[in-house]
TrEMBL record:
Gene3D superfamilies: alpha/beta hydrolase. It comes from the Bacteria. Keywords: Hydrolase. This is Alpha/beta hydrolase. GO terms for molecular function: hydrolase activity. Pfam families: Esterase (PF00756). InterPro entries: AB_hydrolase_fold (IPR029058), Esterase-like (IPR000801), Mycobacterial_A85_antigen (IPR050583).
Amino acid sequence: MALFQCDFYSDTLRVSASMNVVLPQKKEAIGLTGRAWEDKYPVLYLLHGLSDDHTTWIRKTSIERYATDKGVAVVMPDVGRSFYADMKRGYSYWTFVTEELPQLARSFFPLSDRREDNFVAGLSMGGYGAFKIGLSQPDKYAAAASLSGALDIASKEDDPWGLFLPLEAENIFGSAQEVRGGENDLFHLAERLARYEGPKTKLFQCCGTEDFLYEDNRRFLAHATKLGLDVTYEEEPGTHEWGYWDAKIQRVLDWLPLDRE
């Protein structure tokens, strides 16, 4: 694999932005074999959590090594603490991630634009972002994975997670009443996907049973299952930490429909 640190100007954000990109390289070395396609690469957009940035997946897991075996490109953008939203008062990170970023990444690197080759995953805030993208854009993404995702934003009127800075949630989403039934409400987006008549995004969801987001994940699972969505769910003992995510991202890569034969 080849690892790129990519810094560029974003017309959407009107500021410099960054992403890390891992590209397949057909190579055999000590303890490492690579798989590369002859045409454009399938791509996993891998999203970071609230306290992280575009470098954290590389620094705290072995994602580069895991992706090598699969021959999948990995794009890891930086979105700050935006919750992958077009913020009420702030930057338009949703537009950046869903529109500008894929176009720029494909212009810089040989990445496939086929729905069957595009996937998105993330942890915590990034798990929310991954499901938001997968539920909203089934025409562009074949699969979406949430690892310990913050999936029930609409019910958090008083920030019981204790994650946000003063006024931060309001600046991102507005009031909880504005979230419910809107573009930032995953429960609403799941209902809309259930009505979608084309191929639906397949979902992978996991959460540790000791994670503070566990009950939120169970509520979303019950909702998605009732709607008849294609959800693969896994739970086991675990908390909100990188050892768990390092293990589960391997499971996500095994689950992705990457075969082209």
